[in-house]
Design brief:
The protein is of the alpha+beta class. About 35% of the residues lie in helices and about 15% in strands.
C-alpha cells in the first residue's frame, strides 16, 4: 500500500479497524516508518513516566529466518516466516511499579510492567493501523534464545514479539461481547 494513499482515521475508527494480521506481503517496512511507530509508542503512558519499554527491530532476512526456524513456538513460526519485521518488545527490569528511590509501590507487585508494555504495544498497533500496516502480538517463543540472539541487555526482559508488515489478508472482526456483558454500574 502506498503511504500517500492512506487517509487519516479518527481514534475510534482506528480501534475498530485494527485486526491481528498473520499473513504479510513481501514488502519491507522502511526504517523511517519503524521509527515513526516507535515514536508513537513512546507516547504511551507508563508508571511514574518511567518509560521502561524498549524495542529491538529485526528486519533482515537472515535474522528473521533464525528467529522463525529455531526460536519460535510452533504456532507462531508461519507468522514469522512471512513477516518483514519483528519487533522484540522488552522492559527494563525493576522500573515499572517502582518509585524513583527504588522501592516497589504498585499493589500489583512487579507485574505492573506488563501493563505498561501492553499499553505501549497497543499504541504501536494502532499507529501501524493508521499507517496501513498490520500487526499481531505474540507471546510464545524461546525467551532465553531470543535474548541471547539479539544481545538483550541483562537488565531487560522480553515481554512480547510483534510481527508487522503490509497485510496480505483482511480478517473479519471477531465476535465481541455486548457492552452489557462486560460493564457493571455500581448501584
Amino acid at each position: 500500500m502506498c503511504m500517500s494513499l492512506i487517509k487519516p482515521m479518527n481514534t475510534i475508527d482506528c480501534i475498530k479497524a485494527r485486526r491481528s494480521i498473520r499473513r504479510f506481503l513481501p514488502q519491507k517496512v522502511g526504517h523511517g516508518v519503524i521509527e515513526q511507530l516507535i515514536d508513537c509508542a513512546r507516547w504511551a503512558p507508563s508508571w511514574n513516566n518511567c518509560k521502561a519499554v524498549r524495542y529491538t527491530a529485526l528486519d533482515k532476512e537472515e535474522h528473521l529466518k533464525v528467529l522463525a526456524n529455531t526460536l519460535m513456538a510452533a504456532e507462531n513460526k508461519h507468522i514469522v516466516k512471512n513477516a518483514p519485521l519483528i519487533l522484540v518488545v522488552s522492559n527494563v527490569k525493576k522500573r515499572s511499579g517502582y518509585e524513583r528511590d527504588g522501592h516497589l509501590s504498585s499493589c500489583k507487585g512487579e507485574s505492573w510492567e506488563m501493563f505498561d508494555a501492553g499499553v505501549a504495544c497497543q499504541t504501536l498497533c494502532l499507529a501501524a493501523t493508521e499507517l496501513g500496516l498490520g500487526t499481531v502480538i505474540m507471546g510464545t517463543f524461546d525467551e532465553a534464545g531470543i535474548a541471547k540472539f539479539i544481545g538483550l541487555p541483562e537488565n531487560e526482559e522480553i515481554i512480547a514479539l510483534l510481527a508487522c508488515g503490509y497485510a496480505n489478508e483482511t480478517p473479519k472482526a471477531p465476535r465481541r461481547k455486548e457492552v452489557s456483558e462486560i460493564l457493571r454500574f455500581l448501584q
